[in-house]
Amino acid sequence: MADHVASLKSKHKFSLNWGYLNAITSGMSAIDLSSLALRNLHDAREFAREYGFDLDQPATIARIVNGHREAVDFIAANFLAPGQECLIPAEVRHAADPLQLLVYASQRAEQNELLRMWSCAVLKVMHGIFYIDSDLKLRHFNTIREQVFASLDEVIRKDGEQYFLTDGEMCLPLLHYDKKSNKGRNSILLKLLQKAAYLAADIYDHLGVRMTFATRIECLLALDALQRAHLLSVTNVDPQRTRNTLLDMVAAKEVFVKYRTLLERSTSYPSELLQTMDAELKALSQPQTRSDNAHSGSGFASLQVTLRKMIHLHDEAPTQDAEGRDVDFFFEYEIQLMDADSHQRSLTGPASHGAYKQRQVETARVRVFGLELLKWIAAQPQPGAL
Length: 386
What we know:
About 25% of the residues are buried. The longest helix has 26 residues, at about 355-380. This protein is α+β, with helices and mostly antiparallel strands. It has 14 helices and 8 strands. The protein has helices at about 20-25, 40-50, 60-80, 90-95, 100-105, 110-135, 135-140, 140-155, 185-195, 215-230, 250-265, 270-285, 340-345, 355-380; strands at about 155-160, 160-165, 170-175, 175-180, 210-215, 245, 305-310, 330-340. The chain has a 5-stranded mixed β-sheet. A 3-stranded antiparallel β-sheet has the order 1-2-3, with helices on one face.
């Protein structure tokens, strides 16, 4: 005999949280929510347990407290003007129990709108922090970096201050060779907050290199050299992460075929010929728009390829899985190719890295605060104003 009988009767008022349910069924990112759906601190603790936290462990409580402190500091440093941190309500900024923020974030607007909005903002940043801290790949970052750059070092040579890309046959001089050996924690968090899913696994530029050549023709030749050296192949390129705003391949083929014989006859490095070819390529090329990065500025041009490399942890603990096999996984890193003109444009104006980062900050700020809270912040007196 069943212990329960089907019933719709409830101890509480019979209602549905339509906003929350719509968010779940429509695939809305958590960062775009304006409230949660918890009734009290007991619900908040159950929510935290299902999230993955063992609240009986002191270390877990410390992690939550530290995540709260880091989130508040991050918001003050990146999204508020100096002196505006006092706009964050004390109940949110100095919460004795950060889980109380989950309750505040679930309150109806008429109860305490500011507590709800500020709690949501801090919780969104805390969520990103916890994902970063839970990313196993970042825990093995030193090994990953060594193995990724070991492959790249096989094709990069240095003579004095001059770098060259070589596959053992062709040797191309680089104007600049820039390594990104780590993405700072602050930069990772900022990037997560402006992405739809905002998961640490979705950050693809922790590691990478930028190679700048004199001409776009040399970028084309570099692409071929990297392919022959097996750093680029059909099996290790992530096609969905290819960003090409540099090379019109139809025009490049036309120019290359026209001048191929002259290239083959060159007895020394054909700089002048490459410049001639490059000028003709630019005249023939159509604008390339293979980029879905909304923060890239007008005029920014590069070829960016994301590669998967298998990483082996046999020299680290834990070194084996439950069946005694060495632990291996794929890690993605970037190779970016640019010509001298594109590199120069990237130093100033809308195509510059500084302008790019500021657009990222603005996107993240809007998503973390929401339009209501942004409007309220804008209406507050500026720090130091009379």
